Queue: 2 jobs
Job 1
Amino acid sequence: MAKEKFDRSLPHVNVGTIGHVDHGK
C-alpha cells in the first residue's frame, strides 16, 4: 500500500498505475 509514495511521484496515475508505475506511464 504505497499510495502516499506514488501519490507524490504520479498523482495523476497513483490509483491505476501503482502496479504499472514501472512502465513509466
Job 2
Amino acid sequence: MKKNILLAVAVLVILAGIGAAAYFLKPQVPSTQNDIIGIGTTASSSNYTVTVENVSDIKALQPDLSREVKYGASVTEDVKKLVGAKIDTIRTKLKEDPLHADNWFMLGVLYHAVNDYKAAEEVWEFLLKVIDPPAVAVVMDNLGKLYKFDLKDFPKSESYFKQSIQANPASITPYVELFELYRYLYKQNTTAAVDIITEAGKKFPDNPDPYTLLGAYYRDKKDYVKARAALEIALDRARAAGNVSLIEAIGNEIADLPR
C-alpha cells in the first residue's frame, strides 16, 4: 500500500522582471540573480500529495543527511552560523520523518543559499523521483535556474525548463526563464528567444508579460516597428486586466520609441 508524502511548498509566480513599471526604466539586461523558489516568498501555496511505496523506498533514494556542508568562499561566518543551524534543524526533522517533501525542498534551498550547489542539486534531483506533477514543476524550475546561473550547463537548464512546461502547463515561469536563457546565454544567434516568448503569448492570452518582454527585446534590437507592435498588444491586455501601473508604464514605453 502506498503512503502519502505531503508537499506544502509555496509556489512563487515569478515574472522575472516583467510586468512591473520599473522594467521599462532601463534597457533589458541579463538577470544577475538566481531567484530560486523557496523560503520567505510572497506566494500562493497548495498542498500536493505524492506517493512512494514505503519509508524504506524513500531512505534508499534520499541524499546523505550527514554530509558535510560545502560553504562557498563568499559566505560569511555569520551566514554559515545562521543557515548552518537551519540546515541542522531540517536534517534532524528529516531523519525522524523523511516523508515530508516540504522539508526536503527547504533543505535544497538552504544548501543553495550557502552556495553548496552539489548538495542542492542532489536534493532536488531526489525530489524529482518522489513528487508528481504539477508540484514537481517547481523543482524543475529550480534545477533549471541552478544550471542556468550557477553551474552554467545551459543544455541541462533548457531541458529542465522544458520538462517544467510539460509538468505544469499553467505556469508561465519556465517560458520566461527559457526566453532569458536564449536571449542572453544560449542559442543567441537563433530565433529561440522570440519563438518561446511568442509561444507564451499565445498560451497565456490574457497575460501582458510575454509581449512586454518581446517589446523590450525588439526595442533593444532597435527594431522599433516590431517593438511597438508587441507593446501595443501588451497594452491592450493590461487595459483588459485593469492594471493601471502597467498601462502607464507600457504607454510611456511606446511613447518613447523612436518613430
